Structures are given as structure tokens and as C-alpha cells.
User: What shape does this take?
Amino acid sequence: MSIARKLLTTATALALMAPAFATGAAQAETVRIALVAKALGIGFFEAANKGAQEAAAELGDVEIIYTGPTDTTAEGQIEVINSLIAQRVDAIAVSANDTDALVPTLKRAMDRGITVISWDSGVAPEGRQVHLNPSSAPLIGNTIIKLAADHLPEGGQVAVLSATTTSTNQNLWIEEMNKVMGNYPGIDVVATVYGDDLADKSYREAQGLMQSHPDLRAIIAPTSVGIVAAAQAVTDAGKVGEVNVTGLGLPSEMAGHVKSGASQSFAIWNPIDLGYSAAMIAHQLATDAATAEPGATISIGRMGEITLDENGEAAMADPFTYDASNIDEFSSVF
Assistant: This one.
């Protein structure tokens, strides 16, 4: 073959391969962010995924991989994260079932160049770059006990129905709640139980609280699964008006219980905004548009910006209270 023909053949081959190279380059530019829930099938995390998808559409170069285990265990999340590492995603944003157990796996992800943040329920600092709290822990802790105390002017017995024993966020909120108990004289916290963010177990735990404490006047559930289950247990026990259920929940899931009187009021931040903000932070870090350093400011799109503290943490917004006066306005939103 002549030199001229060889050159022509090579040029033709390169021209034919050019679209493939271009396609590969375009694909390489897409930032893949894995949004890891505590467990699939929970309304709060489904709403967060909606917000993350909104962020992806706004950014235009992002694929959100929404995933999680089938139950709220650290082991389940570790298995999911190992799979994401194998897929070589660009970023992992996780709401942790255990603050410490995920650290070795997430460190391995960071060692391989994957951006790692936690949101909602935090990972220990050595296992992530940034943690986004939905609100400040002191504000949440004070809010959940105040919601109970506001409807107990004479005081009374209250109990806490939490998620899992290792849930970072719920444990921190309960700790902050206990710090301000002196501000609510007459309120007596008689028990703390755990429903593992499973509807049936949370329901049984709520039933057990009412049976073990016949003078119980309120159940505080700082978990969207637990609060719905507790409200249903109170309704089924015929104790609407006697035991008030409050805590953190979704308006769409709590509207009926507010109208029935099983819950006088509850609070939550917008999980859509939380998922949106987590995706924005992950994208900023994965594309080197921001750094995860104390004092660093990171844009979170329509939510504004956050400033990291010395632990690499920031808070999104204050919790908002829902009751009969506003529940209809928000129940169709999330």
C-alpha cells in the first residue's frame, strides 16, 4: 500500500471514530451523584430525591442515582456504597444509618477520588467532606419538646418514639431536647423507644408506650415514619384528645391525623429543598467549584449559600410548624 493511501486510510478511520470520541467526551462530562437514602420506600427520602432531580435539571450536566437499602441498617448502606464505588460515581451523598460504621467504606470512596457528603443524618468527619444538617440541632431539639409542651399547660408525661438506636440525627436532636428540659417545668419524659423507621414496629412501640404509661399525654416522634405510626396507634386506641402525637413529619402524610385531632401540630423542613441542596453541594465539590474547608462558602442554588463550620458542617433552614391552620396549604406539596 502506498504512503498516500495509508495516510488516506488513517484519516478516514479517524474521521469515522471521531463521533465515538465525541460521545465519550460528552458522557464523561456528566456528573453522576448518588443520593443514598436510609432506606427505600420512605416518603421523606422520596421527596428529597425529587429535589435532587430538580437540581440536576437546573445544572444540566448531572445524573442523580437515587438508591438505598431495603431496611434501615448500616450493613445495607455499606453494600449499596460498595456498589457505587465499583460504578465509579463522581459523588455520594448519604443520609447515614450509623455515624461511624460507614466511615471505612466512605474513606475508600474518597481515596478513589469520589466526593462524599452526608446530609440529614451525618457521618463522622473522617468519613465525609461536608455534612448538611436540615436545621440546627439545638433548634430542632427545642422545637420537638416545645410542640409537646405547648399543648400541656399543666405539664404531664411524654415519651419519645425515635428511629434506630444508631441514627445520628435523631440521637443528636434528643440530646439537645434533654438540654432544654428545664425550660418546660412539669414535662416528664418517661421513656424513649425505637421503631427502626419501620411502620409496623413503630406502631407496636407506640402501643406499648400507651399500655406501659396509662397517664401518657404526648408521644414525640422525630421521624416521619414514627410520627405517622404513632398517630395511627393513638387513633386505633381511642385516645385522640388524650394523647397528642407530635415531632417531625410530612404534611402529606400527617394531614389526616391533624384533622382528626391525633396530632395538634408537628414540624419539618422541606425535604425537597434538602435533597436539592445536597445535590448542589455534591456537584460544587465534585466539579471543584467549591472546597470543603472550614469557613468555605458553598452555593446551593435557589436556597442561597451555606458556610462550613470547623467540623465541615452547615445547616439549611429552621424547622417550620404545621397545624390545622396551614396543613391544607402544604399537604399537596410534600
Observations:
- The longest helix spans residues 3-29.
- The chain has eleven helices and 14 strands.
- The mean pLDDT is 92.
- The two ends are 69 Å apart (CA to CA).
